[in-house]
What does this fold into?
Amino acid sequence: MANTAAIAVRSGGRIRMIDRRKMLQAMVLAPAAATFPFQGTAIARASEPLVYDRRFAAARRLAAHARSHGARPIGFAGDITALWRTTLRAHWNTGARPLAGITTERTLLCLEQLARDQGQMLLVRANIPGAAGLVRWRIAPRNWKEARG
It folds into this structure.
């Protein structure tokens, strides 16, 4: 009998065993999956705003990609203050609405603090491969899962 290592994981209420080979494959493929910037919960869905920092070519490319899929990119250049005062505060004050972004980590830190005051929370944060210092993220109301049904 072969000596194999396995890990137990819960999936759909059942416990399944994953062998070492499948675990290594998942570990190798996970970074590749992260290079597809608009998959999963970090995307700006159709008609939703996507905040991005125009100073970075990678952010401009990803914003253009999001626009082609129906998102509404909103660019700024480094300082988020004016965008907060003119757009973002009003966006969150109009109800339970998510917001996605491609910014620096420092900008996200500021937005996270402002979001908390508006009853929002950070749902997803991921580094953007090949774009040092940029992160993609999604902020939504604390009860977003319940609000969506």
Observations:
- The mean pLDDT is 77.
- The first helix runs from residue 20 to 34.
